[in-house]
Amino acid sequence: MAALVAMPRMRMKITVFPDVFPPFLCQSYRTKKVSVFHRRRSFSVSASSTKETQDQVRVRFAPSPTGNLHVGGARTALFNYLFARSNGGKFVLRIEDTDLERSTKESEEAVLNDLSWLGLDWDEGPGVDGDYGPYRQSERNSLYKQYAEKLLESGYVYRCFCSSEELEKMKEIAKLKQLPPVYTGKWANATDKEVQEELQRGTPYTYRFRVPKEGSLKIKDLIRGEVSWNLDTLGDFVIMRSNGQPVYNFCVTVDDATMAISHVIRAEEHLPNTLRQALIYKALGFPMPHFAHVSLILAPDRSKLSKRHGATSVGQYREMGYLPQAMLNYLALLGWGDGTENEFFTLDHLVEKFSIGRVNKSGAIFDSTKLRWMNGQHLRALPSEELTKLIGERWKGTGILTESEGSFVEDAVQLLKDGIDLTPDSDKALSNLLSYPLLETLSSLEAKPVLEDKLSEFAASFIAAYDSGELLAALEEGHAGWQKWVKSFGKSLKRKGKSLFMPLRVLLTGKLHGPDIGASVLLLHNGGKSGIIAPQAEFVTLDERFRVLRKVDWEALTKKQSLLETAATVST
Q1: Please, which residues bridge with residue 47 across strands?
Q2: Segment 381-408, tens digit of pLDDT
Q3: CA–centroid distance for 64 within its chain
Q4: Angle CA(69)–CA(323)–CA(102) in degrees, nearest 5?
Q5: What's this model's pTM, rounded to 2 decimal places?
Q6: pLDDT in tens, 182-234
């Protein structure tokens, strides 16, 4: 039999009417069910915290295994993790799998994998032993039943034998009278004889919690400030279904209390649940934890972020090539900041800087463009060896290269990394470098100024330099050899700066824009010798590029440019 577990002593100010809620732990469970609710059903409780933290911080993240881990859930897990770590507390993972129809083992494993990938390691939970287990609600049913029976014995709960049809009729009547759709309390004051008669008939019943008809609940939310509710809008609510399964609010309260959770940090959509849970806390004699309700993550149109806005799960972003440290950094900034303009944080930095008091209560906009930018920042911040390994393995895996390491891979990563925000971007970056769309580029209007700068004469001199072997000899000497050759070549043509390097870029790479031209041509030269580039990469070697260059019909290109310019003028 499970025993009541005491919560850590809370620094809270509680005021209640003593003749309404006698201390639960002091009652005898065998006493006759005589309840003050029959005479006076009024209630007032206020809870406030003098400190953001206390001696023993214990927080929990409690996902339902009914789908993938949403980015909103991941942010909630992160805030719990950061709060625990920054206060020397415990981060507990609890699986809320009481929805038997929708909960699956596959979803649970996916959630656990996503949390592990993010680096949010839990101190207690599935796979990690603790003193407050088990950590799956489906394994705690006997505990819920024991507490439900204790509430029944103490008079805080009663059996309700209303049928679905009766409950539906109550809702219809309330709607006609423009009243809240609350339970009317038909079985709240039933005699023992009436209850026994229904039990003997085998009539299905639920357990309903007696809610005071008057009064209010007020809490001091660590994010939202003071929040209050009137009790007259609630009505007696079910804590155990007729099939013996506990209802969410009852499970959560029992779990948080018996697991000694000190701070409940969760999404604001759970704020209305606090009213029911607070009533259960008081009835069971448990002190309430501190509450902090985090704002929702919104789409750019300020609606709730959903699948119609694109990727919403951590697993999707993982598959798209995002780094876990970038996801954590971005999610932390959705509603939190350290008070400076700094936006780049590692997990250790977040632990050091995090404060629940700096969490904003306004909704945060999920900006996928900024997330992509931030991923690029974290990608380029990786140690050189780690970045090279990551992208090298990507290139080999996609069939661009036959090897994932070596000098060519190292040089290519260093040359192209500034244009890579996601690892899949590296495929396009390298393929673009290996291609040679010279004729397509020269046929564009953008290339007109280059063509008009005597590009055909420049090309003739360039081909001659290649045929003589002087260019290849310079490339064999590396960067210094290239620089020396470029300076000499430019001097011979009386060109320098843009008038020298723009035609060189176009004739060597077939493009008007790109990374450093010297590093690019050296990489192309070495790539042709290494044999590391796969055939399907459609790599155009330097020798093949010059063969293409020799066949260019400059006169035809000039005429084509004139036609393009005329067409553009007419269109304008």
Answers
A1: 219
A2: 999 999 999 999 999 999 999 999 999 9
A3: 16
A4: 10
A5: 0.85
A6: 777 789 999 999 999 999 999 999 999 999 988 999 999 999 999 999 988 88
Cα separations in angstroms, 187 against 153, 154, 208, 374: 16, 16, 9, 58
Query: Which helix (DSSP H) or strand (DSSP E) does residue 267 occupy?
Result: strand 263-267
Q: Round to whole Å and give the CA distance between 68 and 313.
A: 6
Token readout for 189 is 């004051």
Contacts of 492 (CB under 8 A, 6+ apart): 461
CA 281/CA 256 separation, integer angstroms: 10
Q: Kindly name the residue from 175, 304, 307, 484 that is annotated as catalytic.
A: 307
| Long-range pairs of 560-569 with CB within 8 A, sequence gap ≥ 24 | 560/443, 561/443, 561/445, 561/447, 561/448, 561/451, 564/443, 564/444, 564/445, 564/448, 565/445, 565/448, 568/445
Helix (H) or strand (E) holding 294: strand 290-294
59 pLDDT band, cuts 50/70/90, is very high
Token pair for residue 450?
């280059």
Q: What does the DSSP 8-state code read for residue 340?
A: S
Tokens for 293, please give them: 């309700």
CA 320 to chain centre: 13
- Cα angle 103-5-86, degrees, rounded to a multiple of 5: 75
Residue 504 has pLDDT above 50, yes or no: yes
Residue 144 C-beta-side C-alpha neighbours within 13 Å: 24
Tell me the C-alpha distance between 409 and 536, whole Å: 17
240 close to 246: Cβ distance less than 8 angstroms: yes
Instruction: Tell me, yes or no, if 389 is annotated catalytic.
Output: no
DSSP symbols for 173-207: HHHHTT-------TTTT--HHHHHHHHHHT---EE
In contact, 295 and 361? CB cutoff 8 Å: yes
Kindly list the distances between the CA atom of residue 363 and the CA atoms of 52, 64, 463, 543, in Å, as whole numbers in the listed order: 22, 23, 61, 58
Asked whether the beta carbons of 16 and 44 are under 8 A apart, the reply is yes
DSSP 521-566: HHHHHHHHHH--B-GGG----HHHHHHHHHT--HHHHHHHHHHHHH
Mean pLDDT for all residues in the chain: 88
How many whole angstroms from its chain centre is CA 492?
A: 58
Phi, psi for residue 302 in degrees, rounded to 5: 70, 15
Is the pLDDT reported for residue 24 higher than 60? no
Q: b or e along 414-430 (b: 16 or more beta carbons within 10 Å of the residue's beta carbon)?
A: ebbbeebbbbebbbebb
The two tokens of residue 372 are: 């992509």
Give 267's strand partners. Answer: 294
Structure tokens at 548: 């293409």
**Can you read off the two tokens belonging to residue 325?**
């440290």
Long-range contacts of 422-425 (CB under 8 A, 24+ apart): 422/320, 422/321, 422/322, 422/372, 422/375, 422/376, 422/379, 423/321, 423/379, 423/390, 423/391, 423/394, 424/320, 424/321, 424/394, 425/321
Is residue 61 within a helix (H) or strand (E), and if so which, with residue range? strand 58-61
Residue among 361, 107, 329 at smallest CA distance from 221: 361
